Amino acid sequence: RPRVLSGIQPTADSFHVGNYLGALKQWVAMQETHDAFYTVVDLHAITVEIDPAALRHRTRVSAAQLLALGIDPRRSTLFVQSQVPAHTQLSWVLECHTGFGEASRMTQFKDKSARSGADRSSVGLFTYPMLMAADILAYQTQQVPVGEDQRQHLELTRNLAQRFNARYGRTFQVPEPYILAETAKIYDLTEPAAKMSKSSPGGALDLLAPVKQSVKQIKSAVTDTEREIRYDEEHKPGVSNLLTLLSVLSGTSIPDLENRYAGKGYGDLKGELAEVFTDFVTPLQQRVGELMDDPAELDRVLAEGAGKARQVADATLADVYDKVGFLAAG
Ligand code: AQP
Questions:
Q1: Which of 112, 155, 189, 255 has the fewest CB within 10 Å, making it most exposed?
Q2: Which residues have CB under 8 Å from 188's CB, separation 6+?
Q3: Interface predicted TM-score (ipTM) of this complex, two decimals
């Protein structure tokens, strides 16, 4: 079975529907066909300031959401990144093979550091893509299901794998991004030109938010001054985004939805989306609540996953250390 790895940051109290449709839905589906490794990337989360108690809670609630969404720890390896030291060890070696200019071109760093001021950004935010490359390459990963925003980091990962292989002999599998066109970028409900993001909570539809609040957000989502319900990303980004959400959450194609809503208003579309979203999150929230009631069991599942992950990642690290000329520890 082909190997798949993907990660998600525990940087919020809830994932949003963009995380789900862009990545997590594919994570669940790929368990059937792939040897899957899924990780809550807490090392990435400290690249920006985060309170320790919040990080601990968010790591657990992230894992609980993944389990509630259908990640099955008997079939997939689910673990927390900081519990597998090979990620940081490999990332140092990769950093030493990355050009400073090459790393400086990463648009996520440019965007995020522009928000807080470049001088106040951590060095970790700058080296984030090389840690992400280590996450992926440590597992000889073939496919990485992510949203469009991660495409550039995936390209860097591929370049690093190819560069390392060319210099030292075949060491890494060169991974492919797995990005589904229709859900690669879910947009903010209040600002349909921007990507839905954990850091813009007003327009992000959170999976664990009180249902009443989400219904309100959907009903006040920004649309346009026309009346027609039609998919047109360029001229009708808000309506197109709502159509995408309803299409994927209800399993109905966009042309079918356009037909069904011919002659109807935006209120009808929002009403149905609110219903479908409510039906999706209600059992999910209940399951997350149950899992969070037993944090010791959650920690046990994660520790078991980390044990399995270490076996694979340590083997890659040992090969890399040997290839670059480090002495074996014995
Ligand atoms: N709007 C989105 N549409 C589609 N996919 C998305 N992803 C994130 N936002 C969208 C995908 O979700 C996965 C996990 O992302 P992450 O943990 O790296 O979170 P992020 O990108 O930091 O999420 P945010 O919400 O965008 O947070 P901030 O505000 O910190 O930038 C990834 O596969 C990502 O592609």
A1: 255
A2: 194, 195, 196, 197, 200, 202, 203, 204
A3: 0.94
